[in-house]
Amino acid sequence: MSSDPKEYKRVTTNSLVKMKKSQEKISMLTAYDYSMAKVVDAAGVDVILVGDSASNVMSGHETTIPITLNQMIYHAAAVVRASHRALVVVDLPFGSYQSDPQEALRSSIKIMKESGAHAVKVEGGNEIKESISRILNAGIPVMGHLGLTPQSIYKFGTYAVRAREDEEAKKLLSDAKTLEVLGCFAIVLEKIPSELAKQVAQSVNIPVIGIGAGSDVDGQVLVIHDLIGLTKEFNPRFLRRYMNLHDEMKNAIERYVSDVKSVDFPNRKEQY
Fold this sequence. Notes:
Layout: H1 13-21, E1 26-30, H2 34-42, E2 47-50, H3 54-57, H4 69-82, E3 87-91, H5 101-115, E4 119-121, H6 129-137, E5 142-147, H7 153-156, H8 166-182, E6 186-190, H9 194-203, E7 208-211, E8 219-222, H10 224-227, H11 245-261
Parallel strand pairs: 1-2, 1-8, 2-3, 3-4, 4-5, 5-6, 6-7, 7-8
């Protein structure tokens, strides 16, 4: 199969499974608004994740926990309107699915109906399997998320690499197989040893997409603000910045301020 992104007029959950089988790597990025999502989609990204990381990069919160279901729907609806090729997946926010399967179903239906998204993503394994089953039984595609799960940051107490110890690694492998058996169409692995991520990717038939999980998985995901260098404080080993938008924007805005102050803007050609 060609790696040309134009081959898929619209990426679907089935497309991702085919990509894994043909060993075509899956590209995934976050987006939270119409203008940014339009660029991400046009660039040929396979999956756009409307992540609860919007809580950090869009709202300035320290963690992903404060963002609400309605706020996620607001971001997701904007992204869906901009996306013509990519599969759009939306994070279920903290508190909207973990302990009550019926609440998980209500939250997922609300996201799908009000945003037009194509799938939802949840964090966790065996402990949330009833919630996942309830969502899947309603016909809503589910992407799993294992390893460092940011919604559990207060339980972990750190953003350090997960599953270095044998017991946690075994649980992660078990959770991955559980997610596959339940019917999830893909799994995100965050910040785990690359060798373990490779084992997971080889042990399941569904795509495994990594962030800080090495190159032997089926695809990669990054937060768009990190990739373009709009955020400067976040510098993990797994991040590759493809541009320095923060400094470019700052320089452009400083020039604008200077031109306004000096009455250089607008000039004669820029007025009626």
